[in-house]
Specification:
10 helices, alpha+beta, single chain, two-stranded antiparallel sheet, Muramoyl-pentapeptide Carboxypeptidase, domain 2
Length: about 270
């Protein structure tokens, strides 16, 4: 890959393929559906790469940008200012205890779900970690409905009320650790809480490995201590979010949280 340089040859190839398929369609030649889908997917990935590059150039900040095919759509930003749409339900959810290899990762709850693409990336990542001598992984949370998030919110507010805080104080304290219903990344099916059975995760070798390597597989540590003022959430080294490539790599290279990255794209 070449930094800050768009793959011109690849662009030409894709455009030629698109023109060829378009011509065959125009002259009423039966083009296989898979060919049409393949070109469409390539054009979509090309569009994402062009968007990232164009915004980088427009910003003029010298940021290092890697552009290549296989790019995921621009990540969905979910936070207090950007809740999920009412009635939103993610697609392609899989029941992780049934879907994942139990020899690679423990799925703590039988009802935990995740987006299939994100789960596949997660499994690839954890398999590599195991090969490098870091094992004993557990997933404690994945997709959450808004209703379930409301329950978590209410339980935490009640806990603080029992400690003597008033209603407003309890909600403020809760917001530092629990996203408000509708504003949780877990609603996307792309976020996971990674833990180690019986241990405090932040001090483990698993936490260190995850922080150093998760970007290679399309994940980010969503809430870090240095970005708390931006995210509004206290550091959670166990909470990872799948954003895909090249987004994870660009964020890693520029030390951006998701809010900063989305802002850099002008979205």
């Amino acid at each position: 890959m070449r930094r800050g340089h768009f793959p011109l040859v690849s662009t030409i190839i894709v455009l030629v393929l698109a023109a060829a398929v378009g011509y065959l369609t125009f002259v009423d030649v039966d083009v296989p559906r898979i060919a049409m889908q393949g070109v469409g997917a390539a054009m979509s990935r090309l569009g994402v790469s062009l968007q990232i590059l164009s915004h980088s150039i427009a910003e003029g900040n010298g940021a290092s940008v890697e552009t290549y095919f296989g790019a995921a759509p621009v990540p969905m930003l979910v936070n207090i200012e950007n809740p999920v749409p009412e009635g939103y339900t993610p697609e392609n959810l899989v029941r992780m205890r049934e879907y994942c290899d139990g020899s690679v990762v423990i799925i703590k709850g039988s009802e935990i779900e995740g987006n299939r693409q994100a789960v596949d990336a997660l499994m690839t990542m954890l398999q590599v970690a195991i090969e490098e001598g870091v094992d004993n992984w557990q997933i404690s949370a994945g997709y959450r409905s808004v209703k379930y998030q409301q329950q978590l919110w209410d339980d935490k507010v009640y806990e603080y009320r029992q400690q003597g805080l008033n209603g407003s104080q309890a909600q403020t304290a809760t917001a530092k650790y629990v996203a408000r219903p509708g504003c949780s990344e877990h609603h996307t099916g792309l976020a996971f809480d990674v833990t180690v059975p019986g241990e405090s995760f932040p001090l483990t070798k698993q936490s260190k490995w995850l922080a150093e390597n998760c970007w290679k597989y399309g994940f980010i540590i969503r809430y870090t201590e240095e970005k708390q003022e931006i995210t509004g959430i206290n550091a959670e080294p166990w909470h990872i979010r799948y954003v895909g490539q090249p987004h994870a790599q660009v964020m890693q290279e520029n030390n951006w949280c998701l809010e900063e990255y989305i802002q850099s794209l002008g979205n």
